[in-house]
């Protein structure tokens, strides 16, 4: 099981802050994961329709979309950051 | 030459005390000749904004701030680095973020604080949502290309 955590408007559009799921073995990269999530329903499709503005962290470290997710315990999905 | 300098990192709901944080840094470290402090405040946007709601990724926010702070310590030879970022609802004119960089001389302290803020804005997992004075919940603040450009100048 992998824990997915969502923040800001990604969280609002998906409609939940976190969930656990078993990812299919075809999901290798971050891009694969985002494509997989988009098949899970309209709210996911809406949240992730512009992958260019989606940021992903694997086990709380930033990763690019072409990187593998490996044996991630926790994957964070969120918009570009606006702190400071 | 120097032993490892550990940054002081806090992610907290409550406000911070600028002088107390400067004192904490300056009284614990010898050799400091320059301290630069940066405070980021919630703009009132011409009276239209009541507050910002700051959301963060617990755990990762602290980890990213520590990572960025350590990069700055190494790169500029800082003697101390404090970074405090608030979360939750922050009213207009209240503090959001504090960065204190201490060094033997001013240039490293200025650059260290500047570097930390430029990276923090683009890599620390915080997000701002606007609350209008008229009671409206505005949108999420959009990331600015200018912030990416500011960060990239350090590369």
UniProtKB/TrEMBL annotation, chain A:
InterPro entries: Beta-grasp_dom_sf, Mopterin_synth/thiamin_S_b, ThiS/MoaD-like
Pfam families named in the record: ThiS
NCBIfam families to which the protein is assigned, alphabetical: moaD
Annotated protein name in UniProt: Molybdopterin synthase sulfur carrier subunit
Source organism (scientific name): Rhizobium altiplani
From TrEMBL, chain B:
Catalytic reactions on record: 2 [molybdopterin-synthase sulfur-carrier protein]-C-terminal-Gly-aminoethanethioate + cyclic pyranopterin phosphate + H2O = molybdopterin + 2 [molybdopterin-synthase sulfur-carrier protein]-C-terminal Gly-Gly + 2 H(+)
Record EC number: 2.8.1.12
Top-level EC class: transferase
A Gene Ontology molecular function term of the record: molybdopterin synthase activity
Pfam family, one: MoaE
Residues forming coiled coils: none
Start and end residues of each stretch annotated as Disordered: 131-155
Keyword entries, A-Z: Molybdenum cofactor biosynthesis
Record has Protease as a keyword: no
SUPFAM superfamilies given in the database record: Molybdopterin synthase subunit MoaE
Biased composition (Basic and acidic residues): 144-155
Role according to the record: Converts molybdopterin precursor Z into molybdopterin. This requires the incorporation of two sulfur atoms into precursor Z to generate a dithiolene group. The sulfur is provided by MoaD.
Family the UniProt entry places it in: Belongs to the MoaE family.
This protein's name: Molybdopterin synthase catalytic subunit
Organism: Rhizobium altiplani
């Amino acid at each position: 099981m992998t824990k997915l955590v969502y923040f800001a408007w990604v969280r609002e559009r998906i409609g939940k802050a976190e969930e656990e799921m078993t990812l299919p073995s075809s999901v290798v990269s971050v891009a694969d994961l985002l494509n997989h999530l988009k098949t899970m329903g309209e709210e996911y499709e809406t949240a992730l329709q512009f992958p260019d503005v989606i940021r992903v962290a694997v086990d709380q470290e930033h990763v690019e979309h072409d990187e593998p997710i490996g044996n991630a315990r926790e994957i964070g999905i969120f918009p570009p950051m606006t702190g400071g | 030459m120097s032993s490892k300098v550990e940054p002081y990192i806090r992610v907290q709901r409550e406000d911070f005390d600028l002088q107390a944080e400067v004192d904490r840094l300056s009284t614990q470290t010898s050799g400091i000749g320059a301290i630069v402090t940066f405070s980021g405040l919630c703009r009132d946007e011409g009276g239209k904004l009541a507050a910002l709601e700051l959301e963060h990724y617990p755990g990762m926010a602290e980890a990213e701030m520590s990572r960025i702070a350590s990069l700055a310590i190494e790169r500029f030879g800082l003697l101390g680095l404090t970074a405090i970022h608030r979360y939750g609802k922050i009213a207009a004119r209240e503090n959001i973020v504090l960065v204190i960089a201490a060094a033997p001389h001013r240039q490293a302290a200025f650059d260290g604080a500047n570097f930390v803020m430029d990276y923090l804005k683009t890599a620390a997992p915080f997000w701002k949502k606007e609350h209008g004075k008229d009671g409206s919940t505005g949108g999420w603040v959009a990331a600015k290309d200018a912030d990416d450009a500011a960060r990239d100048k350090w590369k």
